[in-house]
Amino acid sequence: MTLYYILKEFKFTSLVIHMKKDMGKIIFIEQNGAEHPVEIDQGNSLMELALYNAVPGIDADCGGGCACGTCHVIIEDKWFKQSGKILETESQMLDMTPERETTSRLSCQIKVTDAMDGMKVRLPEFQM
Amino acid sequence: MELFTSLIKKNLNVIPVYQQIQFANIFYKIKKKIGITRPIPEFIEAPIPDVNDIALEEIDVSNPFLFKQNRWQSYFKRLRDECPVHYQKHSPFGPFWSVTRFEDIMFVDKHHDLFSAEPIISIGPSPEGLEIQTFIAMDPPKHDLTRQAVQGVVAPKNLKEMEALIRIRTQDVLDKLPFDKPFDWVEKVSIELTSRMLATLFDFPYEQRHKLAEWSDIAAASPESTGGANADGDAFTAAAEVAKAFSLLWREKEAKLEAGDEMGFDLISLLLSNENTKDMIDRPMEFIGTLTLLLVGGNDTTRNSMSGGVLALNHFPEEFCKLKDNPSLVPNMVSEIIRWQTPLAYMRRIAKQDVNLNGQMIKKGDKVVMWYVSGNRDERIIEKPDQFKIDRHRARNHLSFGFGVHRCMGNRLAEMQLRILWEELLMRFEDIKVIGEPEHVQSNFVKGYKKMMVQLTKKQPIAEKE
């Protein structure tokens, strides 16, 4: 990461572009199949990533407090374990949507990491 | 007395629900004659003083005339500024804490482990003898089981199916409205549309839909619960009628299901098809409670938002211009209407343990009232909160639906009804002018309108291009 900023500072543009390309992407997929690849910004929540990149279908009514269930996403099976642990409050909120699937998560509770490069995330048809 | 009560309880599931209510009523009347019933507070309207003329500890926001007399904004502002977690020792409903800032309300709402929703969410208790059990006033895990059984009624598949029907009914109501002469919006539009919606939700006989609105109003208007204007005996009469009507409907649908008919997506069919709730009719207080909850939840909330939106646009005419210029703002406006109106002013909790909230020590067993109506006007979180702004950023971030496990289950259905209403209104009317002052409901809980005279101006068709 530091090398990236140093290179930016000294305007090694082509190298920077090459590094940016390597920053990894998470792909949000709408119900209709439309894909939204989004660059990973480590440290943000998955919900914030979607909001900042204008991905439609996430409402985030409570602003990320695990209190509304409207940032519901469905993680691709093979990535589910890596998305992190589900605490009881999150599970309780998820239980309140009839659309809950086995790999459902509240995206405000997932911390985005570089290791999620290539992760596919489905958006439900409706939020709660 | 103990033996008598326990004998009654043993035989409860043999007697039809409505007869049990009638029995409870007789029991109550006997107790009253002997003089052992809980006194019911009387509410006589008196002018409410300016908030700056009284001491902080005298502020009592449980006054059911606060909205009617337009004192609520200044009262809650003073509390937010000077005493955000405020204890009122001597209200007609007993002592209670008021939580008035957005963030503190969010904290209480989220922490169902610290604050219980039982036994009821009004400041005062349920009417004596009518202690219905409803999942809005239950804690997990029981809350979760009941809610999950009914959440299908507002599931995506259902909402999609309902949209076309809601639109046809909306168009039908709006097309019958008079132009250029005053009429009562509340009666002709808000109540009519919400009653039709409720009849659909319950698959209730359409021609009797007005009863649903009447019962629902009574359910929220007992003086001892919310400072409402019910007369003595109103609640029992309504409860008995609800019990009878819904028991009949339940048995009808039960028979249909047993005969192998396809299950509908109405509320009672859903309850009948779920393992945890299919015998709910054998638990009368829970039966009435669940049905009443969905009735009340879908009734005056949506109704008062339908009226409130019209009033808001009258108070802020530049927003009406903005809306007509840009109808794509309707969905955002719907959220802003719900925030601005806050149709249910609060929800009440009881502390399960001692809790320190914003510097105040709330004791175990204390009543704690989350004033959504105040949090929705908290300038700390919402910019220029008294402004009605249809293009407000983050308009969905309001408290009217609550947060946490009790967050309003019908919120998307409410939004859909309001969206459709405004889409159809914009197609038909150039102006919806409020005439005079609307009449407010007497209640500390329901922030709503009994009557609102309006006059419509027809939208002129745009000249066709050659």
Name the descriptors.
heterodimer; A: 128 residues; alpha+beta; Ubiquitin-like (UB roll); B: alpha+beta; Cytochrome p450; five-stranded mixed beta sheet; 12 strands; 46% helix; globular
Architecture overview:
Chain A has four helices and five strands. Helix content of chain A is 24%, strand content 16%. Chain A is α+β, with helices and mostly antiparallel strands and 128 residues long. Chain A has one domain (24-122): Ubiquitin-like (UB roll). In chain A, helix 1 (2-9) runs antiparallel to helix 2 (13-21). The mean pLDDT of chain A is 88. Chain A has helices spanning 2-9, 13-21, 46-52, 88-94; strands at 25-29, 35-39, 72-75, 104-106, 120-122. Chain B is an alpha+beta fold. Chain B has a single domain, classed as Cytochrome P450 (Cytochrome p450), CATH 1.10.630. Chain B contains 17 helices and twelve strands. Chain B has helices at residues 2-11, 17-34, 72-82, 102-110, 142-150, 156-175, 185-202, 209-219, 223-226, 234-258, 267-272, 284-297, 300-315, 317-325, 330-341, 372-375, 411-428, and strands spanning 85-91, 94-99, 115-116, 183-184, 346-351, 355-357, 360-362, 367-371, 429-434, 439-440, 449-451, 453-458. In chain B, the strands form four sheets. Chain B has a five-stranded mixed beta sheet with strand order 1-2-8-5-3. A three-stranded antiparallel beta sheet of chain B has the order 4-12-9. In chain B, strand 10 (439-440) and strand 11 (449-451) form a beta hairpin. Chain B is globular, with a radius of gyration of 23 Å. Chain A binds chain B through residues 59-63, 65-70, 89, 92-93, 95-99, 125-128, and chain B through 106, 109-110, 140, 144, 147-148, 151-152, 155-156, 159, 394, 396-397, 401, 403-405, 407, 409, 411-412.
